[in-house]
Amino acid sequence: MHRKVSQVLPKNNRQKSMSRAKATIDPKAVLSMMAAGLWCVLLATGCSSSNPPTDDKREDTGNTKPNIIYIMADDLGYGDLGCYGQKKIKTPNLDKMASGGLMFTQHYAGSTVCMPSRASLMTGKHQGHCTVRGNPRWTSTGKPVDLSAADVTVAEVLKQAGYTTGIIGKWGLAEAGLESMPLNQGFDYFFGYRKHGKAHHYYPDSLWENNRQFALTGNNTPKKQGAYSHDLMAAKSLEFIENNRHKPFFLYLNFTIPHYELTVPEEAKRPYQNLSWEKRPLKSGHYYHDEEGHTTYAGMVSRMDKDVGLLQEWLKELGIDKHTLVIFTSDNGHEFDREFFNSNGPFRGKKRDLYEGGIRVPFIAYWPDRIKPGSKTDHIAAFWDFLPTACDIAEVKPPDAVDGISYLPVLTGETHRQKQHPYLYWEFNERQGPIQAIRKGEWKAVKFFDKNMELYNLVDDIAEEHDLAAEKPEIVREITSIMEQARDPHAAFPLVPHKRILRKK
């Protein structure tokens, strides 16, 4: 018999469990203490429990389809995890997840910024076909474009396949209005941020549960006081898992760490203080940053890592770990680092670039008894592959108009059955835009507006330092033709310099 997260400690002791337990405590006790302590904060905010569990049994009660948990970090670089080469930031739980599962070395985000990247993930479409192709202000009208009612999301498909679906964290695809809220896009439950601007702050004055906005009483955003939103989301994810453990569920867990603003409770920084690191002073403005950047950034990443570990322990405690596929990735490249952490690994560029550092992201899949521990793959995949992969797992047909290809054969070691992409496509139109990019086998092409195409061989030149366009005109012609055919016109996202930039010129 396991204990509910809301009943682990007596009420008068729960507040004490808000502090992180020391590593010397039994892992299950740490898990329960943390979940109970954060649950009391949720109760204090007036947030209700979703789908209360009917009993406390650990046994599997007929859940025949695998659970799927998709965890997405926000602005985490390819090189920010120990298993991907990070030397300074400690990520033991994600490293353990990688050693027990499968690491992709050539997995790509849907875009190089938040909103379009998430839209590609949800709809299975690349940026040439997606409804959302840019962040809220970067449209032809200056007004945000959200998912439409016609967009079929992975949540809708899985819900039709009998899954309970939930999103916890940042949604960011209902900027213009409430019509595109998660519950209208196939999700049964939503807890977190509706819009990107609010998600820039870790001590917000309000969050959303389903279609209701509620106040976080006691939170002071500028002073960074009250409930740390990441902790609330971590606790809510444990609750969602517990409540739905007897039936197939899909949890889309969107942590906002380590997106700006850079702030984290002091205890998360302590392992990185007094290490003689060079200082990175930060100034507050729109973002209420902590004063010192390096220890804060490291503390944020490690705090998220700890919560991923707690989630894994919770799956074991509930007896459903072997019945659950857990994926961890990031929505695009990093924004913060200036080579101190080597956040982009061996790659050129970062967030807002279509070079590899802006779009190639860490991707770890963990599924006991289904994925071979300690394995790696160089299979070329992208966010728009997740929808057909989820359909493959749920044994349902994906929508016809998707660009993705299921990577389930790679996950299960049946690589002889794995289909390959003829190419991957991205476009992006902000300050340097418009920019287009193609990945075709070993070749990577980047095209800036009114400039010659750049061409790189990623097998020989992973850092994209040597432009081979002049030496390979036949490849340039082939990729130019692909670029012209890869996109549908979109009135809100034309391939011309954005008027906001033209006005500044």
Automatic annotation (TrEMBL):
It comes from the Bacteria. Residues 66-395 form the Sulfatase N-terminal domain. Keywords: Hydrolase. Residues 1-22 are annotated as: Disordered. The keyword Hydrolase applies. Pfam families: Sulfatase. PANTHER family: ARYLSULFATASE FAMILY MEMBER, ENDO-4-O-SULFATASE. Belongs to the sulfatase family. This is Arylsulfatase. It comes from Agaribacillus aureus.
